[in-house]
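User: Predict the complex.
Assistant: Input components as received:
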Amino acid sequence: MKKSKILVVDDEQRMRKIINDFLTKSDYNVIEACDGEDALDKFFKNKDIDLIILDIMMPKLDGWGVCKEIRKESKVPIIMLTARSDEADELQGFKLGVDEYISKPFSPKILVARVEAILRRCKGISSDDVIECDGIVMNRLTHIVTIDGKEVDFSYKEFELLAYFLQNQGIALPRENILNNVWNYDYYGEDRTIDTHVKKIRAKLGNKGKYIKTIWGIGYKFETLD
Amino acid sequence: MKKSKILVVDDEQRMRKIINDFLTKSDYNVIEACDGEDALDKFFKNKDIDLIILDIMMPKLDGWGVCKEIRKESKVPIIMLTARSDEADELQGFKLGVDEYISKPFSPKILVARVEAILRRCKGISSDDVIECDGIVMNRLTHIVTIDGKEVDFSYKEFELLAYFLQNQGIALPRENILNNVWNYDYYGEDRTIDTHVKKIRAKLGNKGKYIKTIWGIGYKFETLD
DNA sequence: TGATTATTTCACATTTTCTTCACGATATTC
DNA sequence: GAATATCGTGAAGAAAATGTGAAATAATCA
């Protein structure tokens, strides 16, 4: 699952570092900008930014200005940082499309929680989190697998292996390739262990088990066609 | 705490009444719409609707159409009602931003449970000071937890951990995720300490302790269903 | 400070999952 | 069609993860 990319804009270097640290620890990809112009520059150069955390008070171009510019071209969620709660002209903010306010000082826990909530809300259940194929639905968030609407238990390895198959449909996957991608890099066991897992997955898939095809001398391939 | 407003859209009057009754009984504010166009009309006239329950099969404009229109302007959570489980094209649904499916016939308890879960999830850590789920009531202000009306002592960590579970119902939470969100950022201890807390919380929850499910190889998940 | 409580760590029991192995079945090669 | 290599399968035990109770450490409060 791809990490979400977050642009953090604040003129105080210390504040940027604090936010960066917490978001990085929560497994986000962080880009920093030190003022409004820098922010616009970085935002439009990195077309895949998922969320912006924006300080209001900044030299050159303030948070409102940045927000207005970005909203001309993008619906990316924006969190505004305000020094005092009364600084936030919330009405103006919501008209500009601000998604959330957080007032300084804030607890890192709340910041990360809001970020997560917004990303989840915006993506719905992001397409990265749900893999679907012919009635097999795998949800990474809930870790639930349903087959034709019926919930089926999958162990951790089984889940990961099936997900790998579904993400590489139609591609013949050599055993070594599978080991490298589904198992830890420091795994040095037999590759026949894959076969055992395949057997279990096939059984759990029922009549869809035949989608996992054996490629003789190579490995396996997931394909719904015949 | 303000009542949440829910828009119920179904062309069958009988079905609307059933849902309305249960939600009203659970202290929600319900608005009904009898078809897709009516739904859009009511939604945009009542700007403060918190959740939509939407039947797929409807005359004029079906559930998908309503969903698509609403998503152009709003991120309000949407629950889809499907006549049969296979009617739900879940992938299409998730792309359109459907938050949940419930297939008819459904039990009222499940409907209400899903509604509660979604509303809570969407609000993330909102300003709400009271978290509630199936008789478990947590009050952030007073730091009091009651289970089926009976007060139970929770230590600080236990409180925070349980709150985190309740705010992320249905989501498989890896231990690392839990540590990052419930413990301080500078905590570098064992993740097994989570297990000890889970044990204590489960004990205090009594027969509701089973809601905290173990996801082998990953972590825990709070879920009232099953 | 000393006592009390909360949190973390540890050791061991328990449970679940993963891996290996042996043997039969099946495909490929010559 | 026989020889050979590869795969399917079920069982066993090895390994890993979790449950549990108690002890050690840390934090809090009178």
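The two ends of chain A are 30 Å apart (CA to CA).
Let me know if you want any component modeled separately.
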